[in-house]
Fold:
Amino acid sequence: MTDKRREQELSPLEWLRVFEAAGRSGNFTAAAHSLGLTQAAVSQRIRNLEHRLGKDLFKRKPRGVELTLDGEAYLPHVQSALAALARSTADLFSPAVSEITIAAMPSHIELLVLPRLKPFLANHPGLRVTFVSVYRQRDFDDAKADFHLRYGLGNWPGRRADLLHQELLAPAAAPSLLQAEDNWRKGPIIELSGPRSGWRAWSAATGSPAPLRSGLHFDSFDLVLNAAFEGLGAILASLPLCEAALATGRLARLPEPQVAMDEGYWLSWPVERQPLPIHRDLAAWLGAGLT
Structure:
């Protein structure tokens, strides 16, 4: 195919942008509003595109429009192409990001972010990173930050999310406690209050016997972990949060099965913001293992 023939077959980018907006919203007026055009201009560009393709993309109805079968088949291809173009443009021409803000619970900052932060900063010299501590899940809605590091299912309204680590739970304790106790179930256990699954859920999921007696309760995982370091009892460890402690030997896995939960640790950002290269880099570094 000659270059001239190829140019003749390609539709103008503006027509495709209008088609994508109209197909996504299902309304020419809404598409016009989002693109800063008049409804007549949107309608004309759609007709131009349909004429170029030789196919109707929308069914015109008295109270709106509806994609035809051809329109439904074409829309995801156009959306994918426009998204790829936006990513390439951002990669090549967006100004370097000099500052980012991350909102997260203090234990997640300490246990997930800080052990991985040094190589990330080395790869982004001059980057300023500001952390905003969030103490309750519902307070994330008011947190002013570029990114949220959150625990859950990843389905927060109005936000995109990348899964960093699936939650894995397994019993663990300080090595000193394991040397002193011949059966960890006879000793005290440390529990975490809140929405996370606890010892009973672990026992039900694995079929393993539950511990015999409770000891301490905390409302923060970093306090749970510090209590374990002191040899005060066994904990149901979040393996993503305890990776550094296990690697350094401050904490040791018990000879018990682990269980994978539906929840996980996610990096999220507003749905209307296109990901920049630093977004992908941050997710890659935070999701990387420490070994």
Remarks:
- The chain has three domains: 3-93, 99-163+264-286, 167-261.
- The chain has eleven helices and eleven strands.
- The CA atoms of residues 211 and 264 lie 25 Å apart.
